[in-house]
Design goal:
homotetramer, about 140 residues, alpha+beta, Thiol Ester Dehydrase, Chain A
């Protein structure tokens, strides 16, 4: 179901520590998909001076999960079970944009995918995630 | 081939910005495999107060690539083409350890895998990466 | 580049032994994508009487590679390096249709994806493949 | 739990139509892992005269699921949710052997992996599958 207060939700997500750590920002999370970005700088670089693959992985993971959230029931939550990333091009841009969308919403598993673009809208990477749907009330695990 | 000066190499890697950003540290990179760790804290948390999946992805990506480095020739370098992660358990530990190893070393592609453990050596996640081998002298791309 | 004689190409592919073994047929292989189908019967069943996952995997592998072929140069060929499949629904249909398309065409690696539908055009599975581009003249490997 | 009658179980699996279609045979299915093989011939070839990737995928899918079976409860069954295959070498052998084992057995999801060898025990491919655990009595889906 659509989020009751998307603005509040985005604000909470954008306050989360890891989002700040890697300068990631959630811009949209709608039933038709999510939109996030990361402002890149030296802090994202590996020893070769290029953006670490983990940064792109974090963006894809988040773009996928944020596309699933508006499809969940009130007492449902998700845990990522798998994440697969294909790296097409190395990043040469001061910003990367992630767009996620739900591909299949089953009863127990939701599948989403996300594409990462540079600021010229060139595709940099693509990823696919699957999530187990769980009741918030139930205990965690898996 | 084995690294000529593993200590210097580790030191360079550990100075890299993204390693510092997520408190990741390379402890070993030998032909038989790599060993890395991340000291976890609030900065790695998502909005639910649990470790963001991107942190585990970054550790696996690094554990895989650091296991490949000692197998490369002097003028060879690698780019990640794919990364696949299976999340088994959520992290409830102040440290996570990544161990990587090469699974198949072809002429053009190297495949590695890595396991992530908590401090009780319980397996948290497993991942698989593939890398394209490139000449350092040649132009980048892909 | 577009195939010089798509009809002849399809005929050769459709004569290949494994296509006959699993009743797979190539209907289209164009630059914008491929179209294949499998006529299902008892021979595709596992011990539970449902279609074996390997059948869907074979369709996705073929739909991906057949979408790449029209993009290759005259002296280029491909080898599959990775194949990833997400199974959404079990098959309950006497035919499955695979549609593949190229997602990213790099210099050394091509990435394609394919969706599998039942005869009511309901999505059953999705898959992603990567291929190493090789010169036909060069020796094999990898 | 261990299978009550492993010999009967293997016999049933080996009678299943798709196993016969691709000449696959289950030799072992124990708690520590599974062992299967495929006798290769012209019927497994693609148009280039090499073994179709779908054959290796089917072997990995089966080696993974057969390694999970002895770990299930009496009223439990599994459905494959994802399958990922890395192709290391093309097959040049009249037989391929698949060995599967469980990597993580969660409450809702089981993860298994399998390696494919040629008759000289050279590794040809490796794969990873995940399975949703379901009650036999409950309705299907996902």
């Amino acid at each position: 179901m659509p989020l009751k207060d998307p603005k509040l939700f985005r604000s909470e997500i954008n306050q989360s520590p890891f989002y700040k750590t890697i300068k990631m920002q959630l811009d949209k999370t709608e039933e038709k998909g999510s939109l996030l970005k990361i402002k890149l700088g030296r802090k994202h670089h590996n020893a070769l001076g290029i953006v670490h693959g983990g940064v792109v992985a974090a963006l894809i993971d988040s773009a996928c999960s944020m596309s699933v959230i508006p499809h969940l029931g009130d007492d449902e939550t998700i845990v990522t079970t798998e994440l697969h990333i294909q790296y097409y091009l190395s990043v040469a841009s001061e910003i990367i944009i992630g767009r996620g969308r739900v591909v299949h919403h089953g009863r127990r598993v939701v599948y989403a995918e996300a594409e990462v673009f540079d600021k010229e809208e060139k595709i940099i990477a693509k990823g696919f995630a699957s999530f187990l749907i769980m009741k918030k009330s139930a205990d965690k695990g898996e």
